[in-house]
């Protein structure tokens, strides 16, 4: 088969040597067969003819006229088509039906009609009417082929057919024309008068035919709304003659070639395919359109072209959209696995945008040629479908971003908090705003335009999570700080407590508590100074300070316990006793003499020492102002909650003041007395031995 070449404009290039015979012929097809069945292969032929992607850059031309008036002969000569021609010697019958072929070197589809030689006139008229109707609905130009001697025969077959054509046309556009006849969708009726002898000039023939046409138009009963319409509202008319093919073969060929340029050369005077004749059916929709039109014609349904075009637009836009979406769906599949696996695709936003634009561009390229409103509506539908298909990736990536950036935030913060030399608030605030910025940028990048997607909610949730982690870090940091302050305080109170408890007396606890209060004050101000730089809340401060006080108090108590443990306490008592019993008021060791009142001195030293036991037994300053008072767990809801969570022990302040039970007091006193007795015995013994010497 010949493959005609189109120039860049999609227009046919002129045949250089002008010889149709050497140009070759395109393969024809039977569009409608003898049984009036439509051939669904037409789409394949359009591909073969390189017209499937032509959009509007193709033309369609059809012919009507009596049987054996040289129609096929003319078409083949004009367009280089390969329609069957009646064999002159054998008078062999051609195959009935509607035939279609592509013009050679021009983007023109040509339709030829083969009747059945008028033997069964009724049947033939029916087919002729149907094919004329079919041609009117699709062709830009309807060639009316007739012999010269038929001109003026108003009752002739041609005029009957034209009457049908006009009637049918009124019906075709009835719906739209009645409302708004733009005059932009006319059809050209081109009379080719064959076997022109030349005696009657073309002008006269034209006048005769026009008069007939007006008469026919006037005789038609017009549908509502079109009563006053004129024939020119729907049709342009043109006329040409051709000499006798057999009597003047060279002249015939010459004039046919001249006529041909009117179909091929857009710049030629009298160019046939004016834009306003085009039926505006994109080439890719033509198969469907022609088939639907033929079905309507065959089943004698009312043909309403504007409605047909809208239906075609819906059908084709859906088809085009589904092809575009199919390719798109395959392309975007690659996103699924990594996103489901938790990965963050760096270029996801750009990639999604590209795939979507590509799908829309594919759709626009073909669908934009169809009915504007339908196209717009279908485009919105497609966009929604594309967005819906992309949405899971958007949401998935958002989730992954959230997780990944949150994790890296936590890692960076903890990493920077490892050393000693850092400003906590600066670290956390810095990392926080960095993480929030990163998340905002990354999520904005995947939030495509022309969607109803938003990142606000996710952003708010992210900020909340970041803040929560920051709060956790601060709580840890505060705990660390409190521990450190506690340690310092412990060190500080150690010596004063040891000293105070080593020199017992009634103001012993005053000394202990004064030193405790001083250290506590320092600890608190040290806490508050740091807490301020952490941006701790008032509530956090309250909790931390009360915890600090409690722990400091327990530390003090532990120190006191250590200093009042049995052996330590006993040695303290012993030491006090010894000072009083074995040394005189000047601190000089006594050497017992017989006159000495050992018993009296002993009793006094012992009793004074025993009297210290109750002082040791309870933390109680003589100066009321030095008394410490802390809330017990039952009075402190925050601490109660901590105890509930198992984070701390129950704290009962009053019980921490009591160091010894009553029993221990008695035990300690008894034990001490026994030790003191030993001293007494030893003293007596030493005196006896000194006397003995
Ligand atoms: P169709 O049935 O209208 O398609 O006619 P064909 O093209 O098959 O031609 C029918 C017969 O008319 C053939 O024998 C042709 O040779 C002959 N023919 C074709 N063109 C002309 C012409 O211009 N004048 C005359 N007199 N005969 C022609
Ligand atoms: Mg024919």
From TrEMBL:
**Gene Ontology MF terms:** GTP binding; GTPase activity
Q: Where in this chain does the record put each GB1/RHD3-type G domain?
A: 55-277
Q: Where in the cell does this protein reside?
A: Endoplasmic reticulum membrane
Enumerate the Cytoplasmic topological stretches: 1-693
GO CC terms in record: endoplasmic reticulum membrane
What's in the keyword line of the UniProt record?
A: Endoplasmic reticulum, GTP-binding, Hydrolase, Membrane, Nucleotide-binding, Transmembrane, Transmembrane helix
In which domain of life is the source organism classified? Eukaryota
Q: Note whether Acyltransferase occurs among the keywords.
A: no
List positions binding GTP. 65-72
Q: How does it sit in the membrane?
A: Multi-pass membrane protein
**One example of a Gene Ontology biological process annotation:** endoplasmic reticulum membrane fusion
Q: Which family does it belong to?
A: Belongs to the TRAFAC class dynamin-like GTPase superfamily. GB1/RHD3 GTPase family. RHD3 subfamily.
- What's the protein here called? Root hair defective 3 GTP-binding protein
Q: What is the lineage of its organism?
A: Eukaryota, Fungi, Dikarya, Basidiomycota, Ustilaginomycotina
UniProt gene name: SEY1
Q: Which residues of the full protein are shown?
A: 12 to 704 of 818
């Amino acid at each position: 088969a010949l493959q005609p070449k189109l120039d860049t404009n999609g227009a046919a290039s002129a045949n250089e040597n002008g010889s149709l015979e050497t140009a070759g012929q395109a393969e024809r097809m039977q569009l409608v067969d003898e049984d009036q069945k439509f051939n669904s292969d037409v789409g394949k032929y359009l591909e073969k003819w390189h017209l499937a992607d032509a959009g509007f850059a193709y033309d369609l031309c059809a012919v009507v006229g009596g049987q054996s008036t040289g129609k096929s002969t003319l078409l083949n000569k004009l367009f280089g088509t390969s329609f069957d021609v009646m064999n002159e010697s054998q008078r062999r019958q051609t195959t009935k039906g509607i035939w279609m072929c592509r013009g050679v070197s021009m983007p023109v589809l040509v339709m030829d009609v083969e009747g059945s030689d008028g033997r069964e006139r009724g049947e033939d008229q029916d087919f002729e009417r149907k094919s004329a109707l079919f041609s009117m609905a699709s062709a830009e130009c309807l060639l009316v082929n007739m012999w010269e001697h038929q001109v003026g025969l108003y009752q002739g077959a041609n005029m009957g057919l034209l009457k049908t054509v006009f009637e049918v046309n009124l019906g075709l556009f009835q719906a739209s024309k009645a409302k708004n006849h733009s005059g932009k969708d006319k059809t050209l009726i081109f009379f080719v008068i064959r076997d022109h002898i030349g005696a009657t000039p073309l002008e006269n023939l034209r006048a005769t035919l026009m008069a007939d046409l007006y008469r026919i138009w006037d005789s038609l009963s017009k549908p509502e709304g079109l009563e006053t319409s004129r024939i020119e509202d729907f049709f342009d008319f043109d006329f040409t003659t051709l000499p006798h093919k057999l009597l003047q073969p060279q002249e015939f060929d010459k004039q046919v070639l001249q006529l041909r340029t009117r179909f091929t050369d857009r710049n030629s005077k009298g160019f046939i395919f004016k834009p306003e004749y085009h039926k505006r059916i994109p080439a890719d929709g033509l198969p469907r359109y022609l088939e639907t039109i033929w079905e309507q014609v065959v089943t004698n349904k009312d043909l309403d072209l504007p409605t047909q075009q809208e239906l075609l637009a819906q059908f084709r836009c859906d088809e085009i959209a589904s092809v575009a979406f199919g390719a798109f769906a395959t392309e975007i599949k690659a996103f699924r696995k990594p996103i489901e696996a938790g990965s963050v695709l760096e270029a996801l936003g750009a990639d999604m945008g590209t795939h979507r634009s590509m799908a829309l561009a594919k759709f626009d390229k073909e669908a934009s040629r169809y009915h504007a409103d339908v196209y717009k509506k279908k485009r919105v539908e497609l966009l929604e479908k594309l967005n819906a298909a992309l949405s899971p990736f958007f949401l998935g990536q958002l989730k992954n971003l959230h997780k990944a950036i949150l994790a890296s935030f936590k890692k960076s913060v903890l990493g920077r908090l490892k050393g000693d030399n850092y400003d906590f608030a600066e670290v956390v605030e810095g990392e926080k705003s960095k993480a929030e910025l990163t998340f905002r940028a990354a999520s904005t990048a995947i939030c495509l335009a022309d969607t109803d997607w938003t990142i606000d909610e996710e952003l708010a949730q992210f900020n909340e999570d970041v803040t929560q982690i920051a709060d956790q870090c601060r709580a840890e940091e505060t705990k660390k700080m409190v521990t450190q302050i506690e340690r310092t305080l412990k060190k500080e109170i150690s010596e004063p407590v040891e000293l105070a408890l080593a020199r017992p007396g009634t103001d012993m606890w005053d000394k202990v508590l004064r030193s405790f209060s001083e250290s506590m004050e320092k600890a608190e101000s040290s806490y508050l100074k740091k807490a301020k730089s952490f941006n701790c809340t008032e509530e956090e401060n309250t909790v931390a300070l009360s915890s600090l006080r409690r722990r400091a108090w327990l530390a003090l108590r532990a120190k006191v316990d250590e200093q009042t443990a049995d052996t330590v306490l006993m040695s303290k008592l012993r030491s006090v006793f010894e000072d009083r019993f074995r040394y005189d008021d000047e601190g000089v060791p006594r050497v017992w003499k017989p006159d000495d009142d050992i018993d009296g001195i002993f009793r006094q030293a012992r009793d004074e020492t025993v009297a210290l036991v109750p002082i040791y037994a309870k933390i109680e300053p003589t100066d009321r102002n030095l008394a410490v008072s802390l809330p017990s767990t039952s009075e402190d809801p925050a601490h109660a909650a901590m105890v509930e969570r198992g984070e701390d022990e129950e704290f009962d302040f009053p019980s921490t003041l009591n160091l010894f039970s009553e029993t221990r007091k008695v035990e300690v006193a008894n034990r001490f007395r026994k030790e003191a007795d030993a001293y007494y015995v030893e003293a007596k013994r030493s005196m006896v031995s000194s006397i003995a010497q």
